[in-house]
Queue: 4 jobs
Job 1
Amino acid sequence: MKKLLLLLSLVAGLAFIRPIDTPRPDDSRFTKVVLDNDLNEPMELAIDNQGILYYIERVGTLNRLDPRTGQKKQIAKLAVRATGEDGLLGLALDPNFATNRWLYLYYGDPTPRNGEYANVLARFELTPTGLTNRIEMLRVPLLHEGVSHSAGSLAFDKDGNLFLSTGDNTNPFESDGFGPFDDRPGRLRFDALKSSGNTNDLRGKILRIRPQPDGSYTIPTGNLFPPGTPQTRPEIYVMGCRNPFRIAIDSHTGFLYWGEVGPDAGNDSLRRGPRGHDEVNQARKPGNFGWPLFVGNNKPYHQFDFETKQAGAPFDPARPVNRSRNNTGLTELPPAQSAFIWYPYAESPEFPALGTGGRNAMAGPVYYAQDYPASPRRYPAYFDGKLFFYDWMRGWIFTAALHPNGDLNRIERFLPQMSFNHPVDMAFSPQGELYVLEYGSYWRAKNTDAALVRIEFNEGNRTPIARIGADKTVGAAPLRVQFSARESFDHDAGDSLRYEWFFGGKTVQSRQPNPTFTFTKPGTYLCRVRITDRQGLQAEAQLPVRVGNEPPMVQVLWKGNRSFFAPNSQVDYTVNIADREDRPADPKRVAVALYHLPEGEDVAGLMATGQRTPKGKTLIEQSDCRACHALNQQSVGPSWQAIARRYEPQRTDTKLVASLSNKIIQGGGGIWTKDHMMSAHPQLLGEDAAEMVRYILSLTEPSPNLPAKGRVSLTQPGGNYVVLARYVDRGGLTGQDLLRLYPTRFNAADAQRLDRVARRNGNGAPSSMNYNEKGSWIAFDKVDLTGLKSLKAGLSSPGLTGALEIRADRPDGPLLGQLAVVPGSNQQVSTALTPMSGPHDLYVVYREESGGINIWKRLELRWLEVGL
C-alpha cells in the first residue's frame, strides 16, 4: 500500500513538470494581424467565452469586436474624469458573463462628493442597446490635482474573486526620484506613506473582493488583514504598491502577477538609497511589497528629513515601520516582499536580457496549453506554464519559465523581430490565441499607430511570403519593365511556389518568377504577383507602374570646385531643369536647399527625403523620448519646438548644451511643470545626449531654402556643405541633384579605397594611414580637380626617403605632383599640382628611394589639404 501511495505521489508530481525542453517554435510561425487601428488611448481588454473582444479607451469608450467578422461596435461612451492619469482604466467580465451579462468598470468619477474626488468600481449590465443597471460597488477617495499613479487594472480569479489595482496617488517629482515620504505639513500629496504604506487606505494596493448578486461585495478569507482588525482595510490583498498598472491571475495556481512602474532616480545614492527600478511581481499569498520604503529586491531607502535634508539609516525590510504623520493605519507593517523580476534604466545586473531605456513594466497572462485542447490555433506546448510580461516603454514582450513551485527559472524574449508599439494589455482567447492592445507612440494622445492586434500561431503549413521588384517603375510609353519575384519565399523547406502575374488587369500574363512586360499606353498600372505553395496557401504583393511620364533631370551648375569649399567664400550657382513633359519647367516646383552637416553625418536620408536627418533626431526616434514629447504639440512634456523657442537666444551656447544633456541623463523636473518629472537616461552616452539637445535647439534655425539661382556664403570652417536641388514634375515624379562639399583640409583616413595601407587608430585623434610597402596607395573617389593648385600633407617618416605621388584615375595614372618624404616626425610638406579639370579618382602612391619599409619603419600620413 505504501509503495502504491508513493507511486501515485510521483505520478502526481510529474503532472506539474513544465515541458521546458520542448523545442522553441520558429518565429516565422507567428503572424501579427491588425483588427482595429482606430483607437483613442486603449487601456484594458477582456474576452468572453465566445471569443468576442471587449476593450476600453481612457476617454470613456467601451468597444466590442467580433474577430470572426471584424465588425466593431461602440457599446457606450461613459462620462468619466479623464484628467491626469485618471479616466476609464479597468475592465473585467463577470465569470458568469454568458448568462448574467455583467461587466465591471473602474474609472474616475467626474462629480466630486462633498468636494472629494474618487475613482469608482461599478457593475453594469450589457444589453443589446448598451449598458444599464449601474451599481457603484466601491469608491477609492483620492487627491485630484498634482498627483500621479492611478493604476486601475481588474481581474477575476478562478474562485470568483475580483482583484483591483490602485496607485499611490502621490506626486513623485520632489523626491529626486527616490522614496516619496515627505510628511511635512501641507505636503500630503508628496507622501506615499499616507497611501501605499498605510494599512487603513485603499490606495497603492491590490484589493481582493467577492462580488455578490445584489452588487455588494464580501471579503474573501485570507486577505492581508482579517475583517475587524483595527486601523486596517479588509479589502487589501497586497500593499506597498506604487503604480501596479496591469495585473493578471494565474488561472491554475491562483498566483497574482503585476507590473510595478517604478521611480525615476537614475543612479544609487549613498545618502538616499537605490536608483529606480521597475518590477514584475508575484504574490502567492497576501503581503506587503515595500513601497515607498523599498524597491526591487527589497533595496532599502534611507530615512530622510525633507526639511533639513539630512539622511538617516536605511529602512529594515524585515521590520518596516510607518511613522508618517499622515498615516492612519498601523505603525508596524508586514515584512516587505522582494520583487519577482526587477530592472533599472541602465542594464540590469540580474536580468541583462531586458536591455536599457525607459521603463513601464506590465504583467500578462500565464499560458496553459491544456486549457485549449480542441483548438488548432492554440499556442504550442513550449509556452506551457510561462508568464508573459511586457514593457510599455521598451516595446518588448518576454516570457518567464517557472519551476513547479512558481520560482523563476529563466526569461526569454518573445518574437524579438516583431515590433510592438507600446503594448498596454494582452489576453489569451478561448481558442488559445494571443490578443494585444497597443497604446501607440504618445502618452495621453489619440495615436494613429494605436491598435488591437492578434498574434497568430500556425503550427502546420505556413503562408508563403510574396515580394515583388522591377528594374523601373516610371517612364514614357512604350515602357519595357523587367519584373522579379525571386525574393519571395516559403518558410516550409521544400515547398515549390507557383507564380501568377497581373499587369494592371485581371488577365494572367505570365507564370514565370521574373517576366518582362511592355506597357504601350500611358497610365498607372497596379501590377501584382500571386504566389501559391503546394498546399494551396497564397500570398500577394503589388507594385504600381506609371507609364507616360519621364522623371525630370536636375543639375546644379556650381561656379566653384564641386568637391571642396573654402571658409568664408561665396559661390554663384544655377539649377537647371530638363523635363520631357513639363515644357517649360514650373519654377514653383523647384526646391533648393543648403545644409551644413557635422562631419560624418550621412546624406542617405537627405537624398531619400529631401531633408537632413541629424544624428540627434535619429537618437530621439530610437529612444523613449517620443512617449512624452512631440515635435509641435504638448504631450506629457513640452514639444520640441517649444523647447527650442525657449532657449533660442542661447542656441549655440556650449554650456547650455552640456546642462541640458546632463538633465536628459540624470532626469529632472520643475522647469515646465511641477506635475511631471523627466525620467533619467543613465544608459545614454554624454555625446549622444548632446546630439539630441543640438537637434532640438536647431529647430529654430533659419530655413535652408534657396532660390533656383543665386549666390551662397559658406561661412563654417569644418563639417560638410550639401546643396540639394529637387524638382517634382506635374506628373508627380521627382528628380534631384546633390552636391556635397568638403573642407579643403581633410583626414587621410577618409580615403574610400586602399592597397597595402592600414588605418591606424589615433589616441583621441583621427586615424592616420600607415603605408606598409613600396607602391602602396590610398584613393579618394570622384574628386573634382578643377581649380586645385596645390596639395599639402602632414606626415611622419621614420628613416624613409622617397615621395608620395599624386596621380589621377589609376595608381600609375597621370602624375599631378609629388610630396617629398624625408626622415622626420610631424612634417608638413607641399607640392604644386598640374592643372586638371573635372571629377577624377585621386591616388596617393608611395615611391621609395631608400630606408626600407618594415614593421618598425612605416610611413604615416595624417591629413591632406588642397589649395584652391
Job 2
Amino acid sequence: MSISLVSSQYASFLVAVLFLLCSPIIKSSFADDQRAIYLVLMEGEPVAFRQSNATPFEEGKTLDPNSLASKAHAKRLVESHDLLLQSTLKIGTYNKIYSYKHIVNGFAIHTTSSQAKILESARGVKLVEKDRGAKLMTTYSPQYLGLPAGVWSQEGGYRNAGEGIVIGVIDTGINPMHPSFAYDPTNPFMSNLSRFSGACETGPRFDVSACNGKIVSARYFSAGAQAVTPLNSSIDFLSPFDAVGHGSHVASTAAGNSMVPVIMNGFFYGFASGMAPRARIAVYKAIFPSVGTVADVVSAIDQAIIDGVDILTLSVGPDEPPEDTITFFTVFDIFMLFARRAGVFVVQAAGNKGPSPSTVVSFSPWAVGVAACSTDRSFPGTLILGDGQRIPGVGLSGPTMGNGLLQYKLVLAKDAVKENGIFPKTPEYVEECQYPEALDPTAVQGSIVICNFSAGFANGTSTVTTIIDTARALGFAGFILVANPTYGEFIAEPIPFSVPGIMVPRLADAKIISDYYEQQIYRDQSGIGRRYSGKAAIGDGRLAHFQGQAPIVSRFSSRGPDMIDSNRNPVDVLKPDILAPGHLVWAAWSPISIFDQILTGQNYALLSGTSMATPHVSGIAALIKQFNPLWTPSMIASSISTTASKFDNRGEPIMAEGAEIDSLYPSTPFDIGAGLINPTRALDPGLVFESGFEDYINFLCSLPNVDPQTVKAMTGKLCNNSFAYPSDLNVPSITISSLHGSRFMKRTVKSVATKTETYLCSVLQPPGIAVNVTPSWFTVNPQGMQDLYIKLDVNEIKDDFSFGEIVLTGSLDNIVRVPLAILPASVS
C-alpha cells in the first residue's frame, strides 16, 4: 500500500495485518547451518481421513478424534514421527515442536539446516519447508450489507442470527472482557453444540470464566514462537489473551454481540454488531507480539478442525508467492485444503499490496479470498481559516473549543522553534512537532500549530501519536499535519485524536493554508516570524457522513490475476473471490494495544485492510450455514459468488482506487472477484456450483509442468482423473490465462431451490472472444443437476485479459452470474 503517514506502527493496522508466511522447500538448498523451524509432511493418512473397511471416509466429514481407534492411530503417528527423527538425525541436534496428526500427517522441528537437509531424503518424508516466521498483516457494516432487514429478519432477528454456528478465529487472541464477547443470560443460546469439543486454556489475564458460552473455546499455540526467540512475559502472554487488538477486532466483526455501544475518547459513535451476532467464537492464538511462526499457525488450524469449527477465519496469508514451488503446494495451503476436505468453510485475506496487479496472496480455489472496499460512510474533518475558507481533511477528533466558532492563533511549527535551542536542526525537531523542547511555549500555547509532513514521516520515524504528546505537553489548542511539496501528498485515514487535530494530505489544500498564513504573518528582515495574525478553528471530525459513491475497491486491497509461482506466472483461478467492507471498520480492541500507542486504553478501533474484510465474509457464511445447514463449503462459496453485485449505490460499475490519490478506474474481476457480497441473495441463490476434494486433486493434476508424483506426495492421492485444463474445475467463474483458438468446457449446476425453475442463458461477451453456452435455456427441478457446455472462440488477439459474464436468469427471479476473465492469445 502506498501509505506513508501516521505512525509506522499504526500504518500496519490501517492496511490490515497479514502474516508473512514462509517459502516452501521441496528440494531446497541450505546455505548455512543456522537453527530454524522446519515443517515436515509425511506419508500416511492422518486421523481425520484414515481409511478402513469399518470406517470408510465420507466427504465433508471427519472421523471422531476422541474414539479409541482415532486415539490409537494418533498415538501411532506420533510414535512414527519420533522414530523417524531418532533413526535419522543426531541426538541433541533437534527439538520436535509439534506432531500434526489430525488433518495432515507431519511435524515441526527446531534444528539446523544440515539436519533438515538429511531429513529431506528420509523414507516417508514428502516435504520439508523452512518456517521463515509469521508476522501480523462494526457500527455500520451490517446496515450497509442489508443484514437487519434481510438475513437477520429471516433467521429470527439479531437475537438469533448465527445461532448454533462456531467460527474459529486464528489470530492474536481475544480480549475476553470486551462487551462484544459477553454472555447475555436474558438471551441464552439454544444450541448445545454437542458436536463441538473445544477447551478453555487459561493463563495470564485469561481465566476459565473467559469461556462464557459466547467464547466457547480458547487455546494458544506458542511452541514455535518459544523455539525461535525468548518471549517477553510482559507482552507475550502465554494464554489466549490478545495483547495486540487485531484478533479481537476480527472476532467481533465476524460474530460480536449486537447493539454494543462504541465509545472512544468520550464520544459515542453508534452501536456495533458482528455479522453473525449469535454465532459462537472459538479462539486460536497463534501470533505473539514478539514473534510468530507458521508452525504455530498450522497447529492452530489442525486443532480447530479437531474441535469442530464450522467456519475458519484466517486474516493471514503468504506475503509473497513461495519460492521454488507452486503456490498451491505450501504447507499453509495444504492445511487449508484438508480443512476444506473436513467440511470447514475457509476464508482468507487476499492481501494488502494493491493496487499493483498480481499481488493477491490468497492463491487456492479451496479458500475464499476476500478483497476490501469502502462503504458510503466517511468521517470528514474541516479546518476553518480566519477568512472563512473551509479546508477538508481527516482526523477522528473533537473540535477546538467553541465547536469551530471560536478562532485561535495559527502558528507554523518552523516559526515557533526556539531561536537558541540546543537540539538537532532536523525536520523532526524543526517542523514535525515531534519534540516539545524544540518549540517556544509562549508561541504555541493556546494556538493551532501547523506541523509539516516531512522526512521523519516519509521514513516512518515520526508519528501522529508524538504530535499529540507534544500538543498535550505544550497546550496546543489543536494541530494540523499538512502535505509537503518535497514529499508529495500522503494517504490519510481517520485516527482517533485525543486533542483537536486534522490531517490535510492534499498539496492544493496545504497551499491554501500556507498562502493564508503568509498573508497574515509579519516577519523581520531575517525572515523570523514576529507577529501572528492568522486565525483558524478545527471542526468536529467524529461525525459520520453517509453519502458518496460506494463501494470503491480500497487502494491497498491486493489484485489478481492469481499466480502459480514466485515469477508471477498467472494461473487459471479467479482471485480475489469476493469483495467485502474492509475500509474504516469499527470493532473491538484490546486496551493494551502493544503496537499502537494511539489506541492504548481504547476498547475500539477504526481500522482498514483485507484483514477487516475477511471476517465480514466469515460471519455471513455462518448465517448461510445456519439457514442451509446441509450445504457444503463449496455450495456456500458458490452462493456468495453468484449472487454478488458488480454495481455501486449509483447503479454504475464498481470503481477501484488507483495508485494516485483520488484516482479511480472501472474495476475488473481481478479487483472485486465476483463483486460485492450480498448476504440476503446468497441465502437463496437458486443454483450452485459444487467442487469436492477429488475435484481439487484433479485440478492440481492438471496444472502445467506438475509431476503427478508431486501431487501424490503432497496430497496422498493419485492423478487418476486429471482435468484437461485447470479451468475445468467446477467453480462459479472461468479464468483462462492464455486462450489459443477454441476451447470447450463444462460447468455443472445444482438446484437448491424449493420449486422447479427455468433458466435462460445469456453472455456479456469478453472483447476478442465469442462465448456460446449450450443449452441456451433449461428447466431444473429441486436438487436437480444441469450440465452447461461452453465454447470459447478467439476472434481477436489481445495483449491483456478480457472480461465478460455468463448470466443465468431464472423464471422465479433467481439470477446466477459467472464472471469471465480470459486472455485471447491466438486465433488458432
Job 3
Amino acid sequence: MKISIDWLKEYIPVTHTVEEMADKISLTGIESGPVKLGEELTGLVVGHITSVTPHPDSDHLKVCQVDVGEDEDIQIVCGAPNVAKDQYVIVAKHGSHLPNGVRIKRGKLRGQESNGMICGLDEVGVPAQYMPKEFENGIYVFDQPETPGQEVYDLLGLKDQMIDIDITPNRADTLGMRGAAWEIGATYDEKPSFKKPELDDTKVKDSNNLSVKVEEKALVPDYLVRELKDITVGKSPLWVQRRLWNQGIRPVNSVIDAANYVMIEYGQPIQAYDLDKLAGELTVKKAHDGDKLQLVDEDKVLNHNDLVVTSGDKILGLAGIVNGKLASVDENTKNVVLEAGVFDGASVRKAAQRHDLRDDASNRFEKGVDNGIVSEALVRATSLVDQFSTAKEISKEIVGNYTKAEPTVIDGSIKHINHLMGLNLSTDEIVKILDRLGFESEVTGDKLTVTVPTRRWDMAIEADVVEEVNRIYGYENLPNTLPAGMETRGGYSKKREFSNKLRDVLLGEGMDEVINYSLLSKKEVDDFNTIHSEYTKLLHPMTEDHEYLRNSLIPGLVRNVAYNQARNENDLGIFEQARIFNREKGVARPEEVEYIGGAVSGNVVNGSWNTKAQKTDFYYLKGIVDELLSFTNADAKFEYIATSDYTNLHPGQTAKILANGQVVGLIGKLHPKYQKSQSVDDTFVFELNIDALFDLNPRNVQSQSAPKYPSISRDLAILVKSDVQNGEIIDDIYANGGKYLNNVTIFDVYEGKNIKTNYKSLAYHLEFLNPNDTLTDEEVEKAFSLVKDSLVQKFNVEIR
C-alpha cells in the first residue's frame, strides 16, 4: 500500500520529510520505505495549442503553435493522432528532463523547427497500463482549461511523495488511507480527523426497483446496496484520476473511479452494476459446477466452491473478486447499483487463486475488512458518484445481510503489561498511548479494560495490547538486558556433520553447489521415481510446474544443466544436497529423506597446445562417487550393479549403488531420448541416500607403520565373455589371492579386432605384500595359480 503524503495531509498535519516518516513507521514494526515520484522531471508546463497545421513533408506530423506562458507562442512538431487546436496539454520545453534520462532539445523535424515536445502521460512517468485508455496512443489533454506556463507536477501528481508500507497479513487495516492515517498519526501523537460522508437528503427516496438476497449468510455477514438513477456517466475529476494512477489503478469512468477511490480511502472494496442490465433479484450464492463467468477477455468455468453474485440466471461476478461484463458500467449507463459487502477471506482467497484472479479487492477481503464501516463506505461511494455523475434519485440502503459490528473488549493488568514489556510505565502513560491509537480505556485500580474499534480486528487478547503499547512507546526505547539462564553450546548434529562432510568432498572435487525448488511437475516426478514413492500433490499449487513434492534430485539437476547449456556453458559439474519426499501407500504424510546428487557434462579437460580435450564419461563420475563413499568411513562393502530398471537412464551405462547389499543410490548416463526431450547433451548423474549412508556402521581406523618389506606384483591377462562384469572378476581374485594379496587394479580393457565375438580382454595388476616378512616367489606363485584356476572354473576364462 502506497500512502500519498498529499492525501494524508487531509487527515493529519504532516511536517516531517517522507524519509523521516518511513523510518519512524518502520520502528513501530511495519516495514516501510520512501517513494518519491518524478524527481528527475524538469521543465514540464501546461501548454495551450493555438493552431495546428499539417506538416508540409509528412502525412502524420503536425506543426503546432503553443502558448506556454511566454511572450510568444512556441512551435512544436507533434505526431500524436489526437492533437488538435484549443487543447490544453503537457509541454516539455527545451532543456526539460523526462524519465529514463531523456532530455528534450530544440531541433528540426523534417525541416520544421520544434522547440519542445507535447507529451503523453507515459512519457512523463505514468505507466501506460494505469493511464486513461483514451490517451493510450496519443498525448494527454486536460479536461478543462489550465493556465499556460503553469507547472503540471501538482495537477497530475507527478511529484507526489509516498510511503510504501509493506504490511503483515494481520494489519490489513492499513490497506486504506484512513487506517494508515490512524497508524501514522499514532506514531506522531496526532489524531486524524475525518469528515463523515453525507447524501443529499432531497434525492434519497424510499423506493427501489431491486431486491437483494444472500443465500450463504455464513460467508457473507454484510451485504448492502444502493441504487442511483438517471445519472450521466463521464470522466472523474483530475484529482481523483491522479490519485488512482499513482496507486496503480487505471481511471475508467466517474462511477468505477468513485468505487476504486473509496476502496483506497476506506479499504472497503465497492462494486458497481448497471441496473438496467440486471435480469432480476440480486443474489449471492454458490455457483454450480460448469457455470461460466464472462469476463472482458476470457470466460472462467466455475465450480460449486465459488461464491458468485447473480441476477436471474446471469452470473455477474465472483463475489469479492471481480465483476463480469454482463452488467458492467459504461458511458451509456443511466441507472447504477453500488454494492458494499464483507466476504469470507478464505473463500475469496481460494477462488482468486483457483481462477488466477487476485487483485486489489480480493487482497483486502483475504486479509480482512472492517465490517464497522461498510455502510459508511457505501454512503461515501454513493456521494462521490452523485458528485461526479449527478444522480436524480438515490435509494435508501437495501440490506441483503447485516451483522452488527461490535468492538473488541480486552481486559488486562497495568502491572502485568509492564512486566511483559520489562518497563515501569505509569497508568497515565499507557492510557495515553492507547488513546493515540483511538482505543478507549477504563482503569479500575490495577485493572485495565480496553475497547478496541472494529477497524483493528487483529486484536483479541492482552498480549495484543502489550504489543501496541510497545510499538508506540518505541522498541528502540526498551531497556537492554542480557539473557538469563544456562548457556548452551552450539554445534551441528552428527548427521549434519556427516552431510556437511560429503558436501565439502564434492566442493573439493571442483563441483558447484546448486539449490532447486522442492516442487516438481507431474512429469518430473514420473521421470525419476526410482524409490517407487507415492506422489504428494499440493492442495493449492502456484503453477502446474510446482504441483508435487520431489521424489528425486535428478530432475532439478537436469533442469540446471539444460539452463546452462542453452547459454553455451557446457562444461558442468554440479551437485545438490537436499531432502526428497518419500510417501508409502496409505500414509498421509511423506517422509523427508536427506539426499545428495550430482550431474556432470561436457569436458573434464579442455584441449590446449599440449593436451587433448577429455570428455566426461561414466567412469569419471564413478571416480567422484568412489571418493565420496570413501569419506563416509563406513564399514561396508560398496558395489556397483549394472541395471536397466530406470527408464530415463542409459541401460548400458547405469548401475545401482549398494552398501552391504542395500541400495543406497544410483549412477548413470541420461538416456539419449530423455536427453533430447530435455534439450541437453551427454550428461551423467548420480544420487545417494545420505540417511542410509549415515546409518551404516562406522569403520574403526587404526594407524599402522609403513611396510618394511618389498611387495611383489604379477600381471594377469584374460579373455572372458563380454557379459561378465569387472567387479565379479576382482571379487573372485580377492577371494582366492590369499592373505598377502594387497591390491588389484585393472589396467587394460580391449574388444575388437583379433578378439573373439562377444568376448573381451581384461588385464589386471596384482600386488602381494607381507608387512612382517619377505615374500617368496613360491608363496606368490601358489596364490597366483589359485587365482587363475578359480577364474577358469567360474568364468571359463582363457589365460593369455
Job 4
Amino acid sequence: MDYQYEQIDYKTDIPVNVFTHTVERFPYHWHEDMEILFVLEGRLEIRVGKESYELEVGDIFLINGSELHFINSRTDFGKTHILALQIDHRYLKKHNIDTEQKRFFLYSRESEKVSVEVMNEIRHVLANMMDLVINKKNLYQLKVKMWLLELIVILIEHFEIPAKENNRQIDNDQRLLEILKYMNNHYMKSDLGLQDIADEFSLNSQYLSRYFKMKVGIPLKKKLDSMRLNKSLIALQTTDDTVTEVALKYGFPDSKAYYRVFKDVLGMTPSEYRESFKIEIENNMSKDYLSLNSRESLANLFKHLDRERTHQEVMRIETQTLTVDLTQPLRKIAHTFTNLLTFGYAPLALRSDFKNQLHQIQKEIGFKYIRFHGIFADQLLVYNEGSDGSYYFNFNNVDVLLENLLEENIKPFIEIGFMPKQLASTDQKIFLWDAHVSPPKCMERWKELINAFIRHLINRYGIDEVRTWYFEFWNEPEVEFFWSGTRKEFISLYAETYKSIKVIDTEIKVGGFSSINLTNYQPWIDDFNALAAIEGVALDFFSFHVYNLARKPNVEIEHDGIVSNQPIESVMQFRNIIMIGDEHNLSKNIDLGVNKSKGLFNVSKEIWITEWNANSDSKDLLHDTCYMAALIVKNSVENFEKVNGLGYWTFTDLFEEFQQQMPLFHGGFGLMTYNGIKKAGYHGYSFLNKLGDELILKRKDMIVTKRGADYQILLFNYSHPNWLYRTFDYSQLSATSRYTVFEKEEVTGFNIVLNGISGNYRMKKQYVNREKGSSFDAWIDIGAPSELDDETIRYLKGRAEPGIHIEDITVKQEYTLTTELQPHEIQFIELKKRY
C-alpha cells in the first residue's frame, strides 16, 4: 500500500493550524499530531485503518496522532468543504498534557453518550478559532490558546478512550516514520542523499533503498525530490524570488534539476505554475486565505459563533476622566448634518406610506432639503412622443411629488437626470426602474425640456422659492454604469443645461456632478475647466458621493470608476481590488472630495455630499443594527464642518433600484424599515439635531455644545468591522446574528468633569444600545418572526424608542458626570437650566 508521512508545519505565533479546505481524495497518510475535521458542505468518507466513517454537514471527526487514515469526498454534485484543526502536541506537553499517550474517539454520529450541548460547544470553539485567525483579532494568539485548552479539556472529559478500549491505534513502521521525519527536517540540504540517510540510521544503503521502495512505493530519491517540490510551491505562489533562488532554497542543486522534477511531477514549468497559482499577500493574509470560496460553507461554520458562552468577548476598559471648561470662548456651528435627506426613486414620493414616513422624520428631526433620483423618470410621464413624431411635456405627476415634499416643510434638491427613454440615444440603463444613462438623441429637445421644466416650477412655486432650491446635474457620470457617453459629451450636456437654466434666471443654483471616483477625477476637472472658460459656465455648488470604499493594499485600479450604490452582485468584478476601508477612510475620502473641488474653475464655496454611507451594498445586514447609530454620529461629528450638507443614503427602506427584499430587517440602507419602524441609526440623527449652536468640545468619542443657558453632550462608542466583512464576505452574518464581525468591542466609561456651571438643572439622558432603541434587537428578542401583525408592529415601534433617565441636580461651579456606554451605543445628555 502507498502511504506517506505528512509533516505539519505550524506558524510561530499559534500552536495550531486551522483552515478550510476543499476535499476530493487524499491517500493514506499519517502525521504526529491529532487532527479534527468539521464538515461544512457536502459528504465525506474517512477511513482509519480498516474502519470507514461517513460524515455529512455538521459532523465532526477526530484523527489521533500517528493514525493511518484516508479521506475521500462523497459529494455527488459540487465539492466537499471542511474545516481542519491540527494541534501541536509539543505545546500541549508544556502544559503537562501528553496527547501522544492518549487516544480519543470523536465521531459525532456515534456520540450518543455525549450531549448535543457538548458537540455544539466543540463547533463553537472551532468557529471562534477560525474567526480569530482570519480576522487577526485583538490578542488573537492568546485567545487561540485559550480556546485550544478549552477544547482539550472537553476531549479529555468526554472522548478519551481507556487503555483497554483502545483498539484503533495502527501498528505503524516506526523506523519508516523516523526516516521520513529525518528527510522532512533536512530536505533543504542539496547534498542529502541515500548514503547520508543510511549512515544516519546505521543501515546498508542498498538495504535502505529496497526497504524504502517496498514501504513507500517509490525510490527514496524521488520521494525526497517530491518533498522539496511540495515545500517550494508556497514560495512560488507568495514571493517574488526567482525560480533559481527558490530551487536552491529548497534543496535542489540547480534550477535545471528543479525544472526536471517540476515537469515530471506537475507537467508544467515553475514559471507556468507561478502564473496560474500566484497568491498576493495582503495584511499578512493571502487573498485565498480560505482554500474554498463558498459563503454557504463559511456561514455553516460561523453560525456557531452565536451561542451563549462563558467567554465574554466584550472587554471592559478603564473609565476615562476628562475636564470640560464650559467658560472657554465658543464658536458658532452650523447643523449641516440635518441639511440634507435622501431617498432613491422620485415616484416613491407619490405613495402614502412614503409620505407618512417623511412626515414622521420631519416632525421629529426636520431636515432642510431632500434629494432623489429620477425627476424625469418614465413613470412620471414627463416626456412623451406621439406615433407621428410629435412630443410634449407633462409635469402633473412632478407637481404632486413636489407638493408632497413641500407639505412636509422640506425643499427639493433636484437631481437633473436620468434621460427619458424616448429621448435617449442608446438603450443602456440602470436600476430596476430602467434609468436611461445616455446623451439625448436630440440636444434641442433636451434644452426645450429643461426650459419648460424650470419655467413651470417658477410659474407654479414662485421665483423666490425656486431660487432657494438646488439643481444637481446627473449622478456619478465618471462611473460607466451611470453615463454611456463620452466625458466630452457629458460636459457639453452640462454646459447646455446650465445655460438653458441661467437664461431664465441667473440666481437659480445649478451644480454637480455627484461624483464618487475622485481618485481618477482629474481628467474630468481638466475638461470641465477648459469648456467652462470658453462657454462661460460654472458650478454654483460642487457635490460628490462618499462610501467607505478603498483599494486593497498593493493593488492598482485600472478600471475608470468604481460602483457606488450597486448591489453586491454587481460589484463582483471589483472584489479583487475594492474593499471597505478602515475606520478613518471615510473621513479621508471626504477630505479628498473637498480638496478636488478646489481645482474646479469658477466653482462656488458650497460643497455638498449628496450620498454617503459606510457600505454601498443595499443588502448589508449591519444597516439594521446599533452599529449604524454610532457610525452615523462618529462620521457626522468628524465631518459636518467641512461641507454644507451630508446626505445619508437613504432615510427609508422603501427602495426600488433593485428587487425589494421580503424580510423586514434585510439590510436596507434606510433609517426606517419599509413599514415605518425606526432603526437605531434614526436616533443618530435625532441626537445630532438636538445639539446646540455653539461648540465647546469635539473629540473622537464626543461633542459638547451649548444653546443659551443649556448644555448638550453627545457620546458614542464606535467599533469597526473586521477584515473578513470588509472584503464583502458576510459569512459571519446571519438573519439573527449580526454583531460577530467587529474587531474590538469595548465597554467605555466616562467621568466628565464640567467646570464653570452653577444653578439648578434637569439632566436628561437618552441612549440607544442593543437593549433600548434598537428595533432589530427587539425583533430578535421576540423570536425574529418572518411576518408581523399590527400588534407586533406597534410593540416594535415602542421598543424602537431610546432609553431615558431624568435627574434634577443642583450645581456649584463644578459637576462630575459619570456614565458608561456599551459597544455601538450612543448617548445624548442634556443639562437644561431650571428657573
